[in-house]
Amino acid sequence: MIDAESPHKRLQEQIDCQMDLKPREALEKWQQAGWKEEQGTDSDEVPLKLLALYLLEAIGQRVVRLTIDKDQGVTVYGDTTYALPAAPPHFIARGLELLREMIGMEGGIGKGTLVLGIRNDTLELIIQKQGGLHIINIPGV
After folding, report:
1. Could you tell me the sign of the dihedral formed by the alpha carbons of 61, 88, 94, 35, in that order?
2. Global pTM?
C-alpha cells in the first residue's frame, strides 16, 4: 500500500494530472517561462511534476530508455535519440533523490523498480543509478 503522502503517491498524482498534456510542449513552455513555480507550491511538487512530464514523454513516445543527469539533462532513446528541456539542476537533483527514495536505492550504484499506474494499466520501470546518471528502462511499452 502506498502512503498518502509518499513521493510515489504524489508522483502518481502528478502523472494523472499531466496525462492529457503533450509533455514535450509543456516542458518547452515551462522552460520559456523560466521554470517558475506557482506561489505557495510545496518544495517537492516541482521536481515531481518534472519527473511526471519526463516519464509521460518517454511512455507516450514508446521509448525503451531515458537517462537523467542533474547536470547533463534528460536524453530519450527510442526510434530517435533526443534531449528534453533540462530544468535547473536543483529541480532535477531533488526529483532524482525522490525517485531513489521511492525505490529504496542508496549509494552511488544501484538498481530498482518502480511500478506506476498509467490509465488502466501498470508499467514497471527499471531504474539504474551509476554515479550521477540515472537510467530508466521501460520494458514493454
Report:
1. negative
2. 0.91
